[in-house]
Queue: 3 jobs
Job 1
Amino acid sequence: MEFGFVKTGAYTPQIKVADPSFNAQSIKKGIEQAYALGVQLLVMPELCVTGYTCGDLFYSDVLLGGAKAALKEIAEFTEDKKMFVFVGVPLKHNNLIYNTAAAVCGGKVLAFIPKTYLPDYNEFYEKRQFASAPEENTVVEFYGETVPFGTKIIFREQTQELFTVAAEICEDLWTAAPPSVSHALAGARIIVNLSCSDETIGKAEYRRALVKSHSAATVSCYIYADAGEGESTTDTVYAGHNLIAENGTILSESKLFKNGLIVSEADLEFLSFERSKLFNQPSLEKSGYLTLPFSAPGGSGSLTRYFSRTPFVPEEKKDVESRAELILDMQAEGLKTRLAHTRAGCAVIGLSGGLDSTLAALVAVNAMKKLGRSAKEVITVTMPCFGTTDRTYSNTLKLSAALGTTLKKVDISKAVTRHLKDIKHPQDVFDVTFENAQARERTQVLMDVANMYGGIVVGTGDLSEMALGWSTYNGDHMSMYGVNSSVPKTLVRHIVEYYAGISKGKLKWVLNDILNTPVSPELLPPENGDIAQKTESIVGPYVLHDFFLYYFIRKGYSPAKIFYIAKTVFAEEFDGVIILKWLKIFFRRFFAQQFKRSCVPDGVKVGSVALSPRGDWRMPSDASAALWLNELDKIIP
């Protein structure tokens, strides 16, 4: 597949305990099914060739010999399939029996990975039959072939450098020091776990949390294949709880008590990007790991994993509400501390009737409340000028009254007109000078009002505007503390919606009307009383730009990869030509406007993406966008 995606699967076959021949047929069916979907890496449960619940039958050479023959049959079945498969099988070596993961590809068994930690408590008694993995790698004979045997083995796909895999078995994950930690540090980006975890009340939730958190700790794609129907139910029951997780996110999960296949794609480019920041990896030579090549290049199969249309916004309403509440609290805490530290007499905010200034006002009132101070100590300043409409002006008055802030009205029309006249700029030329003269005048008024009352100016600009440079340098670009600086536009809307939902009366009404007002800086004269300057018709839809921003900064995606994903996600909203147009504008503006981000005011970080030059994003103001734009120029939408 393209862009570092590898199609992975976990399959729970229908088995019969102690019947390797029957089980081999079930396993082959799973391989066939996965192969038809383009799966490159397939994982099956622990001891699935024989069944996990064989008990003392594992001592029988009849069972072990049958398992060996079945494994050979399974391996040969993969000869014409470019797929890497792990199956669980018992193996006798040096008169000891091991619980192993057999790595199979291209008609051969590439290696055996023995289980390190053997549970010997409650319903488990593996130490009765099995030996723990030796500390160092060795070799075993398998039908005349010398095959590596040990836990320190990394498998690397021959044509995809990032496609690296290592294995552990069931209990290995549930211990305090899982082998997969060493595997990840040694370079394995995909960890597979062949498991037979019986089901008890609450265990599925714990198992899911464990797999999810461990994929985050190891910055890996973690594939967990669990045993299901067919294992003995003498004392236990097995649910086939298969999971695929990547860096803390569940990509795919099976339903309990339903044998079968789950599939998703590991994003190896993202994992590599993330590890480049978090890992200081030792070399494979120093770590004592053996690297074995395999061939599973893939090629067929479509991308099935889910990508959110609004990655900054949770999918579930209850999660949106809890996040909005948390962000509001974080913003208010940050501003509270700055107000207390500077002994500010008030917080001054330019209220425009738009979403950003509305959120800043909500935050400022909450900050004052945390300090035990009155909302009256928030001074909201409305500054009507050439582009102000009756709707937005009216909403500033209503919002201030509903919040109980101190309202100041400063009509800046005459001051801007005089300024344009002083610099000999025509009053009827609506260019960038005409627009920015208003933005800078507003900032001057706010700064002077703050000086008058011993306060600080609270900035209203958001993360999306910062990314695009959609602000006037030394105008709305400047403040003394920017409470929205790491909140993207798509999330700003949801936070205000949340606040409207918990509000009553006049505050609820005005917040809802603000939510229904088009986004605009209102710097051009209205047309028939309506807003003439709509931001998204100029710089593009914020839903696209926030999507681009997230996958560029948080995921490290290339422009072509962002386009590839966006085409699928926004297929019903925008065609490829439109997406490409705005993506080019995003990268042009992102690089060209870095000089504004290099000197932004302080502001609280609330999420995983932030652009403060003192924190998350360090980039020279003169960096060239040529490489990124050249990549986009080669795309045919």
Job 2
Amino acid sequence: MNAEQFKQLVKETQIGKKLPDAIYFHREYFAQAPAPLVKFIEIVAKALKIEDDEWNLIKLFKNDFRLSLLHYPDFFQDAYPALKQSVTVDLVKLSHRITKYEHRDNPPILHRKETLIPENHPKFEEFLMITQEGETIGLYENSRMIGFKDSWERLTAKHGYELVDGRLFRSSALSQHAPSPDNIDRHKTAIVRHELSAPMKTLAKHGFLTGDYSIFDYGCGRGDDLRELEAHGIDALGWDPNFRPDSDKISSDVVNIGFVINVIEDPDERIDAVLGAWELTDKLLVVSAMLANESYIAQFTPYKDGVITSRNTFQKYFTQGELKAYIERIIDEEAIAISPGIYYVFKDKSLEQQFLQTRHKRNYTWQQKTAPEPVSEEQARMLFTQHKELLESFWLCCLAYGRIPAVDEFKESDKLKEIIGSQKKAFKLVIDWFGEEEFQAAAKMRQEDLLIYFAIGLFQKRKAYTNLADDIKRDIKAFFSTHKIAIEQAKELLFNIANIDEIKAESIKANKDLPASQLTYENEEPHALTIHKQYLDSLSPLLRVYVLSALQLYGELDDIQLIKIHITSGKVTLLGYDDFDNKDEPCLVERIKIRMAEQEVDFFDYIDEKNRPTLINKVNYILI
């Protein structure tokens, strides 16, 4: 083989970890590499008398007639294995150089191992998860800082984390002794954070950190969340068995038990922790835990219902579905998925209804752009002249509810009554003034949202509430007459998500009506509809229920841009891209497949930037 043939074969190689000047891959990838190239590599190794057990990775140079045989003996055991030996071969000069690292204190280490093996390899998902955690806390932002063992450890410590068996643990101290199940080092699981934890961030997003709610952090670790909340003037207290054992456990509106249950090795004590947090909860409990798949868990020493790590800490990993079932089994209340590994459980059912309604409620925007035609009555003209702001505010309230608001639903009802006489008289006045068309559109929107709210409740098998909130009772009376009729209509809507013909028809219609979307075909039949998440609220009630039912298993769309509705299989795929809004051709970084029939969620991540699929038809999904 000559230099040109070598360069051409390297160019044709589509596997492995691709860098600007080279390609790396493990021998496990040989079956998918060009056969002449594999044969050539093996001939070179044999000629140099490099035994098979002395190399397992290959580095192919793109621009030179060179290759390296690399030996990472702990490739499959260590999350970030160290290089033991490198044999670099210059095929032009017919020379080679052997560099040994086994006795060096600071050897090169390997990252992104999932890029070096085939996607169907049993270890692929485990390696992918290891890389994802490093990405999440920003360890890969400067690639020049991660190539050697010492700099990697310093970088990890600088970010306030410690990697144990390749995973981020709540620890900042090293274990000095071998694992001992009889003496679990539970105190070594407290992460030093430099920003709010993920569960606290969700509370901020949903308006629970405005200062209106008291907060208690059950298992607060070193108290980083508490310091940040207190700096914002929020009433926040916490307790931790290791770092704040003398603090009182105080009942609070919102209680967070964040990444605590997964580090408690005793199943009874774990249950007691959840129940203890629930007893302190007045309104909302937030429960979170680490997720992992079976292939990752299998590498550790089993202990009770979890594993013992190499740092002598216990971990009980969950899948998304297992965590939900675990919480509901203990508390006997519905756990609402907020994001992977994070669930809300409401003790205040009125607040839960408010949260769920708001979560799926659309806001009607007043469309009128010109001055309204005055009504004939002189009194009406005078009233609108003198009280324009009050009556416009009442009109917007009518549009928000899709009906006449009750006295306690409009904050200036007393003033309105004094001027007009009653809510009904005021409604007749504004409907005559502004016109009925917009109000009917708002009423239809509100009725659809309520129907979806009830349908999602049925999908989740949510318990019927004995005492509905007053505003829901008014909505039911206005839009459905009775609660029974509302539930029957919601049941019919929910059952229709299994009707392929209905889903197909609505998908075809959505593709025509939406400003942007993509309808793909398979065997000349509509196969999937893909939309940007900003158009989710514009879908028909049936398609909204289809998507929102899937999201009950996953959580919210914070890092997701595109939603793919599989028409015939009862699946929804969520796609998250890198800087979607600003890049013309963003790269895929996250794919989630939700299988509603199986009630399961599959996660796929594209951590290696070189291997991320590019979205080349962004214009099909959003108006630019």
Job 3
Amino acid sequence: MTSADLVLLDGNIITMNPKMPSAQAIAVKNGKIAYVGSNQKTKHYIDEKTHIIYLGGKTVLPGFIDTHAHVTDYGRLLTWLNLEKVSSIKEIQTKLTEYIKQVGTNKWVLGRALDSTGLLEGHLPSYHDLDVVSPDNPVVIYCKSGQVCVVNSKALVAANIYQQNDSGIEKNSTGEITGVLRDQATNFVWNLIPEPTLQELYDATELALKQFVQTGITNVHWIVLSEAEISVIQKLVENNSMLLRVYLIVSSQLLDLALQKLKHLENDYFKFGGAVIFADGYLSSRTAALFEPYSDSLSVKGSLLCQQNEMVLLADKIQQAGLQLVIHAVGDKAIQEAVNTIQQLNRNPNVPRPRIEQAAVLNSQLIQCIKKLEISVSIQPCVVASEFLFWSAEKRLGEKRMCWLFPVKKMLDCGILVSAGSDCPMEPLNPLFGVEAAVKRGDTQKVSVYEALQMYTVFAAQAALEFVDKGSIEQGKLADLIVLSNNPVSETIGEVSSVFVCFAVIGGTVFCSKN
């Protein structure tokens, strides 16, 4: 019997394989799973060179697959001033002072994850509060929830806020601008923030990849929307610096460039998987294309970003390139256009089934069409939660359509392949937060913990036509695994988000978490 490079013993292994749902131990050889089963039989794979890890009953899952993330954008966010745990405006001022010493004067300072509910004062700082410690740097601090930021006077002047007329520009009782910007008004300053250099993007992306692994993500579907990211990815692959497995999905506008620069670089850690067509926008901005007007704005239905004939031509081009067709479609009208396009497609049997990204506003007929055409759907559970919590989805869509907003349970029950991702950095990266969001929905569309885990593992692998190697813990598959502090499926666990990743294994290599 061949000796193993790595053996995990005494674990609670949830395999996601219905033929063997659970096991105690795993043996790994040459980056693949050599054996899954009992402690006793796994010990036969051990010799003096085997690295043995005793799990003490900890839970093992297949590595998480995040099917929708913006990796470089997340890396940029990690370089910003982190204000997640500050408890007062004074503490914000202290952290700002220290950060400015590092970056120097006159440079833009970006902060993130500020939560006004956690501040001693009970309200966001004003531009006066920021000016005290940052008179020479434009400062923009983004809040944890919703589309909200706080800026100092330097940023207010740069963005010409005093001459703007927008309801999102907050004013106090005397009519004075406070420095708090909401919704579309945040774009006034966002559009002024200087673009980072290519080296800065590369360094930020490396930071992001490390964080992905630490949260248990062993495979990411990386959504690329800029030329700069293509150069970053090219350099990462050429330097053998991909820490986890990447399934690349580029905007259809970048398809030719990406094919030229990246297709020939594919390896075990990098695959050029698909291209995405944007059929419409988002519910939050009322740019998702609907058949009927928005309930809170009866003159608005949203609009299609891509007409049917153009969409068909792009779809054919993507399939002919040997790539998965991905269509971002949020509103029911856009989803119908996506379905019509796929119906006309001369499908390539060697690429994964076409996929609709988000598919937020559905109906019974659309669900049946998606099922019949064998289209997969990629959702982001934390985005779903945000639609309910921050974007007033019920007010925006009305009671009737709300019943069909992200009907995940209905799709799963009728056999549609549904995978899950984070939409990071717009939403939290941690897949366990996504699992909890899917389980805690306050309507009939909540799913079980096991179903949510399937969307991040086995279903995600099937959606990319990668189930031969990924998605479950089986002999012969890649040794991409995660070890958790507790069993998220257990009914006694309470909050799923309280579970943390102890370590990840990618291709047989152990990556320790910060926890």
